[in-house]
Amino acid sequence: MLMGRASKTAVVAAIALLLSLVAFGNITDDGANLPFVQHVLAMDTIFPSATIRYRAIEAPALQQTAYLLIVAVEVVSAVLCWFGTARLLRHLRAPGAVFNRAKSAAVSGLTLGYLLWQVGLIAIGGEWFGMWMSHEWNGIESAFRFLVMTLGALIYVSLPDGDIPESAAHS
Question: What does pTM read for this prediction?
Answer without folding.
Answer: 0.92
